């Protein structure tokens, strides 16, 4: 696939203009488009514009309601529960993390949960949202069943992405990971390119490990990270998300046949309110310095989570955001249809 390099604002505006034809107010279209475009800007192409047409399809099917906003269910000091009303997943998540930030500024620690929401697309957006507000942010979501329990031969567990973000002046540490060895968005990109994965990505129908992305996409038997450990941790996150939000667990989500009405949790810690500012920078810098001084095999180097994001962002702002030519043509056709 050939990539085009499109100015960020042009990508953003294209998505926004398309969304205006799908029942979005201008303000919500701008925010939603920005969250999609920022994923590609930061180099997370698997969860940005590549997901946009699937998102539009969910709107057409009535699975995502563009005009619905979170509805408060319970507000008990530092803990709040909200009903996402099957609204726009990335906008609901942005709202929830913003509430978590606000509450942490008041209480030091906060927990905001969402039930009945939709796919948040790039979860890392909400980790960056926290660190840009000077806060430590932790958030996770459950998904449809797309991974076997360890020893199982059918998808029973979600890959339940987890984000942990820690502010640091020299560069925030932002971990954004799913509990399958490869996120399904990345598998889809490799499948479209006709490429095999670098490591085993899941199981085939006979229980053998495979690097073929198409096989894993078709049977939803992604390989858990850390094998049985990843499977167990993913199950616990699913349980926490459903208990704390009062919403669906992965097995409930799987009954609909679509990944919708998921549950999410957003935790936030304000270092200033918690009186951590005297040492948070020195602790983080010392840890990163020790990591970067690690011996390596050959010419490799070690990186901390999120290390290259700012560099990638600045490069793409300067040179343009890489978008596949085929996808860009499809977006332009959609834009033309929206104006008719």
From TrEMBL:
One MF term in the entry's GO annotations: oxidoreductase activity
SUPFAM superfamilies given in the database record: L-sulfolactate dehydrogenase-like
UniProtKB keywords: Oxidoreductase
InterPro entries: Mal/L-sulf/L-lact_DH-like_ah, Mal/L-sulf/L-lact_DH-like_NADP, Mal/L-sulfo/L-lacto_DH-like_sf, Malate/L-lactate_DH-like
Gene3D superfamilies: 1.10.1530.10, Hypothetical oxidoreductase yiak, domain 2 (3.30.1370.60)
Family annotation (PANTHER family): 2,3-DIKETO-L-GULONATE REDUCTASE, OXIDOREDUCTASE-RELATED
NCBIfam families with a match to the protein in the record: PRK13260.1 (NF009750)
Protein name: 3-dehydro-L-gulonate 2-dehydrogenase
């Amino acid at each position: 696939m050939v990539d085009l390099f499109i100015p960020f604002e042009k990508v953003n505006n294209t998505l926004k203009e398309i969304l205006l034809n799908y029942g979005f107010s201008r303000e919500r279209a701008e925010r939603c488009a920005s969250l999609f475009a920022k994923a590609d800007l930061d180099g997370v192409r698997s969860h940005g514009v590549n997901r946009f047409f699937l998102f539009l399809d969910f709107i057409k099917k009535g699975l995502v309601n563009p005009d619905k906003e979170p509805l408060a269910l319970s507000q008990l000091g530092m803990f709040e529960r909200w009903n996402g009303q099957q609204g726009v997943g990335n906008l609901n998540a942005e709202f929830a993390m913003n509430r978590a930030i606000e509450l942490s500024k008041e209480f030091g620690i906060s927990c905001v949960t969402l039930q009945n929401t939709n796919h948040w697309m790039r979860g890392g957006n909400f980790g960056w949202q926290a660190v840009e507000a000077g806060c430590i942010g932790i958030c996770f979501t459950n998904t449809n069943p797309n991974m076997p329990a360890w020893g199982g031969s059918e998808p029973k567990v979600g890959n339940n992405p987890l984000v942990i973000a820690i502010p640091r002046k020299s560069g925030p540490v932002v971990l954004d990971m799913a509990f399958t060895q490869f996120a399904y968005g990345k598998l889809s990109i490799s499948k479209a390119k006709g490429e095999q994965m670098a490591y085993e990505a899941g199981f085939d129908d006979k229980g053998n490990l495979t690097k073929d992305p198409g096989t894993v996409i078709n049977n939803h038997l992604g390989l858990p990270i850390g094998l049985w450990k990843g499977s167990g941790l993913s199950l616990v996150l699913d349980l926490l998300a459903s208990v704390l939000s009062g919403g669906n667990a992965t097995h409930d989500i799987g009954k609909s046949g679509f990944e919708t009405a998921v549950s999410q949790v957003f935790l936030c810690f304000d270092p200033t309110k918690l009186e951590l500012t005297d040492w948070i920078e020195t602790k983080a810098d010392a840890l990163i310095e020790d990591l970067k001084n690690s011996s390596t095999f050959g010419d490799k180097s070690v990186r901390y989570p999120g290390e290259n994001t700012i560099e990638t962002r600045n490069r793409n702002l300067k040179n343009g955001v890489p978008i596949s030519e085929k996808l860009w043509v499809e977006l332009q056709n959609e834009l033309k249809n929206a104006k008719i």
